[in-house]
Amino acid sequence: MELKKLAPNFAVQDIEKTVAFYRDVLGFKLEMAVPEDKSGVEQELGEKKKYIYAMMSRDGVGVMFQRTDSIGEDVPPLKGVPIGASVSFYIEVEDINALYQEIKPKAGVVKELETVWYGMLEFYIKDCNGYILGFAERK
């Protein structure tokens, strides 16, 4: 048996807003999306359409987003659970200084770039849904 990857599925209110944030602020690419009528899988968001699911990636890091009503139907224990979490999502990167300069003007930095006690240079932001994303590089 082999574990292959971990891809978080974030519960969100608005797929379109979330896709825009991850695309425009963090440089992620939309891999696929599912409209609310579940009519199929799309590679782009259509205008005047609402979506229940999207998958995005950047440099081998994958994330999924599912609208709160849809995720509650698929995974009943998540029905009605508030958005956000007492967890941070930690992403190891190369050239953290360049990434920090790219992201800082566009996102709410909640912890500035610094080297921490366990030897990583890191910073944290809050995404458009309130989730905390950490970016780190081993020094």
Task: Kindly describe this structure.
The chain folds into 2 domains: 1-82, 2,3-Dihydroxybiphenyl 1,2-Dioxygenase, domain 1, CATH 3.10.180; 84-139, 2,3-Dihydroxybiphenyl 1,2-Dioxygenase, domain 1. The chain contains 3 helices and 8 strands. It is globular. Strand 7 (120-126) and strand 8 form a beta hairpin. The strands form 2 sheets. A 4-stranded mixed beta sheet has the order 1-4-3-2. 18% of the residues lie in helices and 38% in strands.
Q: According to CATH, what is the topology of the largest domain? A: 2,3-Dihydroxybiphenyl 1,2-Dioxygenase, domain 1
**Gyration radius over CA:** 16 Å
What is the CATH class name of the largest domain? Answer: Alpha Beta
In this structure, how is the largest beta sheet organized? 4 strands, mixed
Mean pLDDT: 92
Number of domains: 2
Low-confidence stretches: none
Strand numbers in spatial order across the main sheet: 1-4-3-2
Q: What form results from the Cα inertia axes?
A: globular
Query: Cα distance, first to last residue?
Result: 33 Å
The proportion of residues in beta strands is 35-45%
Name the helicity range.
Answer: 10-25%
Brief description of this entry?
With 139 residues, the chain is α/β, with parallel strands linked by helices.
What is the secondary structure topology, with strand pairs?
Layout: E1 9-12, H1 15-24, E2 29-35, E3 51-58, E4 61-67, H2 68-74, E5 88-92, H3 96-103, E6 108-115, E7 120-126, E8 132-138
Parallel strand pairs: 1-4, 5-8
Antiparallel strand pairs: 2-3, 3-4, 6-7, 7-8
